[in-house]
Amino acid sequence: MKPTIRLVVACACAAAWHAAASAQSADKNDAVFRYRGADREQRLLEQARREGTVVLYTSLAPSESAPLARAFEKKTGVKVELWRAISEKLLQRALTEARAQRHAFDVIETNGPEMEMMAREKLFAEFHSPYLSDLPASAIPPHRLWIADRMNFFVVAYNTLKVRKDELPRSYAGFTDPKWKGRIGIEATDAEWMATLVKIWGEQAGRAFFGKLAAMKPDVRKGHILLAELIGAGEIQVGLTVYNSNAESLKRKGAPID
Q: Which parts of the chain sit beneath pLDDT 70?
């Protein structure tokens, strides 16, 4: 991976707000959830153990989400029912369930833009926890409806059997050179990557870059794990919007990706 070309995107988690619950159960759950006493964690844990299972929707890669779920179960004794999908599908499922008043998940974790969309649809409850003091202020939006829990680094990754390291340009602009036509790939849903570059460069320069990039006919794939796997397999030579964790995971398994 080229450390000189990378961007960071926040991912977040939130707790569901089941507005359609009965008044009595909603008041009871709300009282527990919003409680801020010193024994808050113990009270939440007791309630969770009575229910027995916590349902988590996440876009975190299975190689990371599954071990986290197992660690949570071992520590708390509460079973985790995990459903994993790319952020776009996760958003669609959550909104569809909410509109049907079918409240299936307890906690949801995915990319910041999708979290904000769901927050504006009033799917979440305001969140408080003593552990939030460990996070930077930028991780906590003013409405407190979701909290950033991890960061994804966008990096350029390449297949080491198809591309020499000294071939790689030092900036994104270098990938608009005609020699890269048909050799690069991007993930289909990375609007935040595009928006961040436009913000950094300015609208005019940003629009010019993406116009040139479109002319390179990049291979557009949906799913960051898929994009990284295709680079490792050599089907795509270079990816411009790869999550560093996906590339590192494949590299540790011996795939020709860097």
A: 1-12, 15-29
